[in-house]
Amino acid sequence: MDQTYGDFRARREATVWQRLNRILRVLLVLAAWLVIVSLFVPPYKRLVQSRAEIDNLQAQVNEQQTLLSRQTREVNMLKTDVTYLETIARDRLDLMKEGETIFRLEPARAAKPKAASSARR
Known about the structure:
The chain has one domain. It contains three helices and no strands. The protein has helices at residues 2-80, 82-93, 114-120. The radius of gyration is 40 Å and the shape is rod-shaped. The chain starts with a helix and ends with a helix. The mean pLDDT is 84.
């Protein structure tokens, strides 16, 4: 009887050690995974941040190129197109030709909210 109890105890102790070994292996794998993740996450964040900055700067470059092309076109028209030059000059100096009628449209002003004035009463 002692021998069967000893075999059972030996098997039980062996399974306990096997379980502890499995747990230790799992913990080692998790620790290795965490180390790898901690090494690669900060550079990845910098990469994402750099790409966002590059996109922002590219948008600014595109905006500046659009502005440059617009202004270049206007300069060329002022140098070559007499009619355009005359139109711009008359517009800025508020002059008109004889028999010409000028209509100026003012941008709409923001209306005052009526709720604010009735709340004061």
